[in-house]
From TrEMBL:
It comes from the Bacteria. The chain crosses the membrane at residues 27-45, 65-83, 104-129, 149-168, 175-197. Keywords: Membrane, Transmembrane, Transmembrane helix. This is Uncharacterized protein.
Amino acid sequence: MESTTDPARLVPELDRLRARVRADQRATSAPLVVFGVLILLYPVLDGPLTGPLAAGGRHVALLAYWPIATAVGLVALWFAARHRARRDGVGAGRRDYGHATRRYLIALLLIVLLMLPVLFVGVFAPLVWPAAVLAALAWWRHDTQLGRWAAVTGVLGGAAAVLAVAAAGTADAGWLWLVWVGQGLLGLAMIGGAALARRRELAAG
């Protein structure tokens, strides 16, 4: 019995499927959007929009923001990736966001139970936390572009921490304004980078 499948048509289809899977496995747009939005939201707690929030409540909010926000963001990425995998009919692969999310939650639980001072990184150097998570995702998913954004976020986070320390104990709040504006610009730049990455992903798919 002769096959009705034309090999000349089958090869391009397989190539397109491989390209789509590669684009999904190495996608950078989704995590960039998620962490860009989270970075934009952080100054609401840390900046002048905090308003009459008591100092104790503010400190707790700053301490809990990145651990909780990161968990929520990773869960959102996990469910979005599962939806895409079911829609396109391809597996999520061994390096999906589910594995990354579970490992993050286990690490966070250990940090809390052992009372490790890592949580205070989110207060004194807030951008270092998302930079570390982005770097871990970049390593986990072999994503070079995501690794570059992690490096940029880490460098800016370290600089922002130095400026915040320099502004502490002074009457001039100008340094803090620079930190808030810088965080907002980074969040917007990350979302813009996600839009460009998305265009490349669509072209590859």
